Amino acid sequence: MCTEKQEVHTMPAEAFPSLVTPTTPPFDQLELAREARRHVCRESDAARKYTSFYVAGVYGGIATAYALGCSLRCIFCWSDSRDHQIGKRVSFYSPSEVFEELWETARKKGVRKARISGAEPTLCKEHMLQLLPLVEESDFESFMLETNGTIFGTDPSYVQEVAKYDKVHIRVGLKAGSPAGYQRRTGALGTGYELPFQAIKHLLEARASFHVAAMTDSRLMSAKERTQLIERLTELSPLLARNLEEETCDRYPSTQRRLEAASADPIDFFVRRKPLKPLP
Fold it and tell me: What is the pLDDT of residues 202-250, one digit of tens each?
């Protein structure tokens, strides 16, 4: 089904790091998004690069298109395809080819949900806007759009376009409750902390179907910062704050490598689990 196979070009590590270390200079996530697009989005046919298609056990079973390219370098990330510099063969797929792969993958396993994962789904705008009508007109029950908010935070018209589809539900993932925490955990400049909250504002204005998740694992985020995050979210919507999906950091091999690079003790980190305080 794929239209082309090729090696991904390698960017200098010092420009956009693969691993965040204590000495890594913070980057502009919008610049990284633009650079990633050059590698993983193709304008001529609105194609995007993917590595595989499979059914994941989350959401009760969901057909997943594993994409390439992200605008962040989170130290707790599990994905091995977030970097556009990934050293493996990948393929360009047009929106219709992605839909067909998702549909066939779902049919084989008897599931009715679909998503793009492994990277930032909103990165290739035309690709997404041509894929969603195919999902909407199909027998899929729903499409889960998981985003870090970088693109939606800067493009309200994109949010409006996505929000009009009844089958699309959006999950916005917050990484921190302060600019300092954001920079430390994502590798991006702390000013980027505002972008996911701008995305939430745009989603509220568009009356989109969405909820918010946050990596509030107490081994990564202090109780004070978690409170700051919840307070900030409450200012936008008390309902979103009450229904916040709180994440814990799982022990994937890729996650452990990133925690090691960030100077976290991976053994100690995954052994100790402090209980989270309940939401107010």
Answer: 999 999 999 999 999 998 999 999 999 999 999 999 999 999 999 999 8
The CATH number given to whatever domain includes residue 185 is 3.20.20.70
Total structural domains within the chain: 1
Q: How far apart are CA 197 and CA 174, in angstroms?
A: 8
Model confidence, pTM: 0.87
Instruction: Tell me whether residue 166 is in a domain.
Output: yes
pLDDT at residue 277, as a whole number: 45
Mean pLDDT, residues 243-272: 80
Between β-strands 90-93 and 62-67, what pairing exists: parallel, antiparallel or unpaired? unpaired
R_g over Cα of the chain: 18
| Cα–Cα distance, 267 to 254 (Å, whole number) | 14
Whole-angstrom distance, CA of residue 16 vs CA of residue 29: 9
Helix (H, G, I), strand (E, B) or coil at 213: strand
Q: Which residues have C-beta within 8 Å of that of residue 137, sequence separation ≥ 6?
A: none
Q: Is position 133 within any domain?
A: yes
Contacts of 179 (CB under 8 A, 6+ apart): 190, 191, 193
Higher pLDDT, 26 or 8: 26
Asked if residue 85 is part of any domain, the answer here is yes
Burial 48-85 (b: 16+ CB within 10 A, else e): bbbbebebeeeeeebbbbbbbbbbbbbbbbbbebbbbb
User: The tokens of 280 are what?
Assistant: 């107010």
CA-to-CA distance for 260 and 267, rounded, in angstroms?
A: 10
**Residue 43 gets which letter from DSSP?**
T
Confidence of residue 66 (pLDDT cuts 50, 70, 90): very high
Flag whether 30 is in a domain. no
**Domain range holding 159?**
41-255
